[in-house]
Amino acid sequence: MYVIAIGWLYVTLLMAATETNITAGVLTFVVYGAAPLALFLWLFGTPQRNRNRLSREKIDDAVGKDDGADTRRDQ
């Protein structure tokens, strides 16, 4: 997915480079390139973020359980 993102930024950078003034170039890059790409990566990254969150919760639950194997001062 990152190859597509890099390619899209490359294309929009070349589009911005062909603009006649600098303001138009910056706006072209931001409006056609960076903003839609950020939205795309955020939307399509949501399932992975949810999977990461669930795996962290499972690890925290497993680590947080007291199995009685640790010795304390009074034992």
Task: Give the arrangement of secondary structure elements.
Blueprint: H1 2-17, H2 22-64
Q: How many structural units, i.e. domains?
A: 1
SS summary, helix count: 2
Strand content: under 5%
Distance between the termini: 55 Å
Low-pLDDT segments, ≥5 res: none
Radius of gyration: 24 Å
Oligomer: single chain
The best one-word shape is rod-shaped
H/E element order? HH
Largest sheet: none
Helical fraction equals over 70%
Mean pLDDT: 86
Structural class: mainly alpha
Number of strands: 0
Give an overview of the whole structure.
The mean pLDDT is 86. This protein has one domain. It is mainly α and 75 residues long. It has 2 helices and no strands. The protein has helices at 2-17, 22-64. Helix 1 packs antiparallel against helix 2 (22-64). Helix content is 79%, strand content 0%. It is rod-shaped and about 80 Å long.
In short:
79% of the residues lie in helices and 0% in strands. It has helices at 2-17, 22-64.
